[in-house]
Amino acid sequence: MTETQHQPTQFKCILFCTDLSANADFAFQFAVDAALRRPGCELYLLHVIPESDAQFWKTYVYEVEDVDNKAKHDLDERIKEAYINKLPDGVNMQIEYRVGKDSQEILAFAKEKNIDLIVMGRGGHSSLQKPFFGDVTEKVVRKADCAVMVIPMSFKERTEKK
Fold it and tell me: What distances in angstroms separate CA 148 from CA 9, 129, 153, 161, one per listed residue?
């Protein structure tokens, strides 16, 4: 038998998707690891605000002065605390927000930016919709034209027991 050489993957664009859940926070380290192993690759963070939430804000909250800027500021602060402050030197990340249906926005963004790898947690806020495999995650895995790395929260629990 001939010995084959390991050929590293050529991921040039990595997309980390977050719903700001603990599972997404855990999955972030896998996205960073993938970026660190591929110097020069682009790392994107995408957070999709569900259309229904956005419509709620537009309909009921506009009596609060400057609500959009306040909401964006709060979201920026959460992203900074959970992700930007944890980036190691040498890894740059672009932050993107979209409003719409989660899986559709993730897939559209991946196509638009020619993403090679999507990293996302399994479950997150939508874990009640589909036990064992989140609805958004399932749709992305089924329809993505690139590699998808799915990180279950149970993996974190398992590694903490060691």
Answer: 13, 20, 16, 26
The three-state secondary structure class of 98 is strand
Q: Can you give 103-148 as a three-state secondary structure string?
A: HHHHHHHHHHCCCCEEEEEECHHHCCCCCCCCHHHHHHHHHCCCEE
Range 13-161: architecture per CATH: 3-Layer(aba) Sandwich (3.40)
Residue (of 51, 52, 32, 28) closest to 41 by Cα position: 32
Average pLDDT per block of 10 residues along the chain, 162 residues long = 66 94 94 93 93 57 61 91 94 93 96 97 54 75 96 80 71
Q: Which of 97, 108, 90, 113 is nearest to 144 (CA)?
A: 108
Please state, in angstroms and rounded to a whole number, the distance separating the CA atoms of residues 129 and 161. Answer: 28
What is the model's pLDDT at position 154?
82
- pLDDT of res. 132: 42
CA 24 – CA 118 distance, rounded (Å):
12
Report the half-sphere exposure of 97 (CA within 13 A, side-chain side).
15
For residue 50, list its beta bridge partners.
100
